[in-house]
Amino acid sequence: MSTLALPTPAPAFGLQPFLQAPNQFQKITLTSAQLLALNGAPVTIAAAAGAGTLLVIDSVSYRYIFNSVAYTIGAAVLRLYIGSVIAGHALHNNVATGLVDQAANRVLPTVQIITPTTIDTDANYLNQPIVVGNDNATQLTLGNGTLEVMINYSTLLV
């Protein structure tokens, strides 16, 4: 009978998995009151994960549930941000037009995620939540529908 010699495993010191929590899913429903106040009150979709972590969005989808009045958009925007809306690190382009200004339910199954174009400090990217907000001074007006926001994301250790 022969025996199989297995290689000696490498020492574990200094090795850390960089993915703390892969493939997490979060779904929230924004009320009409939240949509109408997004400029001054962004809504957290995924909470900050702790010191030394970075949330990375893999995908985002939206579902608008029309009630009886569509929203008037004007110059308002609807986007996801990493961290503060004021810091301006949007994760995709404006999706308000054609979604919440319609008089029927609408689904936006996949929104293309963009890479924030601003290199910034750790404080603006690490241990920051993912929020939905409006970085324009103009609010959505008149509408009374709700909006489901669904994201798939990973938490990275940095």
Record the SSE blueprint.
Blueprint: E1 19-30, H1 32-36, E2 43-46, E3 53-65, E4 79-82, E5 106-108, H2 122-125, E6 130-133, E7 146-157
Antiparallel strand pairs: 1-7, 2-6, 3-5, 3-7, 4-6
Describe this structure in words.
There is one protein chain. This protein is mainly β and 158 residues long. 6% of the residues lie in helices and 33% in strands. It has helices at 32-36, 122-125; strands spanning 19-30, 43-46, 53-65, 79-82, 106-108, 130-133, 146-157. It is globular and about 45 Å long. The N and C termini lie far apart (48 Å).
Proportion in β-strands: 25-35%
Q: What is the CATH C-level name?
A: Mainly Beta
Largest sheet: 4 strands, antiparallel
Q: Give the CA-based shape.
A: globular
User: Helical amount among residues, as a percent range?
Assistant: under 10%
